[in-house]
């Protein structure tokens, strides 16, 4: 057994060991802690968070492997496999990733795995292709650390939907500010003691005053959209009834500044697509069920009883470029890009 563990550790070290350019294979394998490799990985994580339509930001956990292909006439393509960890910052939260806390395992953490191709050209890194998936830690792993810790609950569970509706209604009833509309249900857990439902959800401000609203359908989003994030708990009282606790934080309005796209980089973020889980989002909702395919967006169905937003629903591995009209797999597409000049 010890020999097997030693062999496994050596294999892990070898996977991140620097290997010079192989003239036969056509690529080199720099060390995982190589500065350019780390920059490419961080550029990939930044791209993921900018294009995530819902859920929470992810941060880099580790680089598993990297291959670097030369690209003619200039540049290199980094083929990187990375692991990510979900943070507590919602994707609509402008807080810098460096200031976002990684979700603890006792909170039922979520981990991601990504295969990403990043172009380095003229000292700039830009993403060509992204394939990711994410999943919560197993119930067994959570129970080992904390037998009584609650697990993630399906976002479309009637108890979850009720808790979100009650929490948001309570906040609006007590607020002196703008009436808030639901954007998405982001996270939920059933807490055993006290018996309660814990929820997290995103909201958007409207042009109505919360305490004056009679017909919410007449409320419109602000011209410059302002999003927020809420946490709530609906506790079942022993003698009947509910105790609702909720806090909401509104984020500063963030102006959208178009960024120049380097040659061969993926383009615009997706536009809004209806979500199948939980109550139907209003127009306040960000893009929620779409996949990045170069300059276009393709709607994809979401699992009905999901408990988190899986990265694969946005980064499904579809080639981000059309390879000049050739219908090829993403690996062939990348190889094609290495051998051709992008105008």
TrEMBL record:
Region (Disordered): 257-285
One MF term in the entry's GO annotations: cysteine-type endopeptidase inhibitor activity
PROSITE patterns: CYSTATIN_FETUIN_A, FETUIN_1, FETUIN_2
Transmembrane segments: none
Keywords: Disulfide bond, Glycoprotein, Phosphoprotein, Repeat, Secreted, Signal
Gene Ontology CC terms: blood microparticle; extracellular matrix
SUPFAM superfamilies: Cystatin/monellin
UniProt keyword Signal present: yes
Low complexity bias spans: 276-285
Name the record gives this protein: Alpha-2-HS-glycoprotein
Range of residues in the leader sequence: 1-18
Keyword Signal belongs to the record: yes
């Amino acid at each position: 057994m010890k020999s097997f563990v030693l062999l496994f550790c050596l294999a892990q070290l070898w996977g991140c060991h620097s290997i010079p350019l192989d003239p036969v294979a056509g690529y080199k394998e720099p060390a995982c802690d190589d500065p350019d490799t780390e920059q490419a990985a961080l550029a990939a994580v930044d791209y993921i968070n900018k294009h995530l339509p819902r859920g929470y930001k992810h941060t880099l956990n580790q680089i598993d492997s990297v291959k670097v292909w030369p690209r003619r006439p200039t540049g290199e393509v980094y083929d990187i496999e990375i692991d990510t960890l979900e943070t507590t910052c919602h994707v609509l939260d402008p807080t810098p990733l460096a200031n976002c806390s990684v979700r603890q395992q006792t909170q039922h953490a979520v981990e991601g795995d990504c295969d990403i191709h990043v172009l380095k050209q003229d000292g700039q890194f830009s993403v060509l292709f992204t394939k990711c998936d994410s999943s919560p830690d197993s119930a067994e792993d959570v129970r080992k650390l904390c037998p009584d810790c609650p697990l993630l609950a399906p976002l479309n569970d009637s108890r979850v939907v009720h808790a979100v509706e009650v929490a948001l209604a309570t906040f609006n009833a007590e607020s002196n500010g703008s009436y808030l509309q639901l954007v998405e249900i982001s996270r939920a857990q059933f807490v055993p003691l006290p018996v309660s439902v814990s929820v997290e959800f995103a909201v958007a401000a409207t042009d109505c005053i919360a305490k004056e609203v009679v017909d919410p359908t007449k409320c419109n989003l602000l011209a410059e959209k302002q999003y927020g994030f809420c946490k709530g708990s609906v506790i079942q009282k022993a003698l009947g009834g509910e105790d609702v606790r909720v806090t909401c934080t509104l984020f500063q309005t963030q102006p959208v500044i178009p960024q120049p796209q380097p040659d061969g980089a993926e383009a615009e973020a997706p536009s809004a697509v209806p979500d199948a889980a939980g109550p139907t989002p209003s127009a306040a909702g960000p893009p929620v069920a779409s996949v990045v395919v170069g300059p276009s967006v393709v709607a994809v169905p979401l699992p009905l009883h999901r408990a988190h937003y899986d990265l694969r629903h946005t980064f499904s591995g579809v080639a981000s470029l059309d390879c000049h009209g050739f219908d090829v797999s993403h690996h062939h597409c990348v190889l094609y890009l290495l051998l051709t000049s992008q105008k």
